[in-house]
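Re: duplicated header lines in exported structure tokens

Our pipeline writes sequence and tokens for each protein into one text file. With two proteins the header for the second block appears twice in some exports. Here is an export where it did not happen, for reference. First protein block:
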Amino acid sequence: METTKPPGIDIKRHADLAGRLHHPRWRRFALAVITAVPVIALFNVFGQRTLSSRADSPRASLLVKSPSHVRGGLIFTTEIVVTPHRKIRNAEIYFSNGWFKNMTFNAVSPQPSTDSAQGNWQIWDFGPLKAGQLFTVLISWQTNPTNVGSHPETIQLYDGKKHVMSIHRSLLVFP
């Protein structure tokens, strides 16, 4: 029994792949590159793992837990924990504008009693804090999809007008 080939099919070209020696290599290479992106993401290269930054002074301790690498469109939470060693009469947290640059601020809990802006700082007033009592602030953010690059983030704790401590961080945003 003799097989007939369909019209327009050249056995050497279509079945034996004559003249196409490098094509499978390029396809495999392209597939490997496409596969590498999610594998690299599994190792947290593109973000979302929380990085803790801590500062201590005789008056208080300040802990900031927030990602240092994020992707555009990602929703994440920043946790700020203030532990006063002595009573703080008027706790104010100052955020540099780098925290808000090309970010969508979704919510904060608990709400500050007042918030204001002074130069390059956003100031949230939380009132008095008792010594030894943990005070936690949770902030929900979303990275804007057009936000790409590195942004410096500084947070400062004040007791009224008296500076208590600062933490300097940076946020790297991938497209």
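Second protein block, exported in the same file:
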Amino acid sequence: MKRLFPFLILLLSFAFGVCAQTDTIGVHSTAMNKDIKCVLIHPSHAAAPGTRWPVIYLLHGYGGSYAQWPETAPQLQQEADEWGILFVCPDGGLGSWYFDSPVDPSICYETFITKELIPYIDSHYLTIADRQHRAITGLSMGGHGGLYLGIRHQDLFGAAGATSFFLQVNRDLHLKLLEKKIDHDYTERPGGHNGAYWSNSIDYQILFFRKYFRKAV
């Protein structure tokens, strides 16, 4: 009976729709002298000894917040469980564009994400703490942040993406990547600058990141 008990608990969890655990945490930023809220979506099942997860950082858009991705793409909970991925959704301010401002010391979101948030996540959660298992992307302003930080910090991020970030700029970037023979996926789909588009497009990006993570195994 003792051997059956954990198995029964697992069956009941699936029967009642238990999915990934979602936490809202505050991570202190020394650079900005304040706590920054982040949503973490991580697998609900108990990890076997030695199990660690790859991480995808999801950046929100202009005027959004740390809650934008969980609200826009609720399927992230199921995907965290199915594929064993930790999603981290940090707050990037109303319009920081994920830069360190040269004129306003209260806006240092590049420093926060790359020097404060990543070490915090890797030290507090069961992550695979290397670039081959860490990706970053975002929507709109967060798409800019995903590519900006991914390109500038290739020691931290092995893959980067963007969705809904200035169509002609995206096309130009696509051509430049082809010219430089840099492997990438580029897709244009009909839709608007809205949640319905972002919710759909993020699934394709997660698929791209999953393939990248598997190559590192």
